[in-house]
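Hi C.,

You asked whether I'd gotten around to modeling the 210-residue construct. I have! Everything is below, sequence then structure, no commentary in between.
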Amino acid sequence: MKTILLTGFAPFGADTANPSWEALTLLPDQAEGVRLVRRRLPVAYDRVAGLLAQAVEEVRPDAVLCVGQAGGRTGLTPELAALNWKDAALPDNDGVQYGGVPICPEGPAAYFATVPVKEMVAAIWAAGVPAALSCSAGTYVCNCTLYHLLRLLEARYPTVEGGFLHVPYACGQVLCRPGVPSLPLSMIAEGIQAAALTIARGLTSEERRP
């Protein structure tokens, strides 16, 4: 049985919930013969690397898909790459703020996701959930998490695939944000599951991905 490690985040900023985690709690422990394991991460630049490494060591998954919130997006967006850069106007939940520094000074400028991002977009749409490919995960904690994940997998778990999926606000978060896009939490969960199962199917395929 293939195992996919799914991570979501705690709430941050002015929000009291984070759909990246709330949606994961709606998923089953198994789907289509795939084991889905969940872990919650803090919105904290300087802590995610260690906690993520600990989760991978404990679970020993075949692939890791981190999930984060991107308020303002209209659908689920698999991320193509993580940039070696930390730069955001919003501090993290530990009060840490970076104004433009590398995540790893000795690391490459970017890492590319090793999960099948285009196939994930198609599968999410097929599940009835809007989706699009995003070229980078930004420069906040989500991007930092993906960068640390791909660096970890390259160094210690080269057969494990890794990627990141941004999700929009859940409907309950936009009651005081007129005109801001959102999706029902159940729909976000369906899209995440479709993405995870697409990754799992690719793990058993002998075809080489582009």
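If it helps when you're writing up: The longest strand covers residues 2-9.

Thanks,
B.
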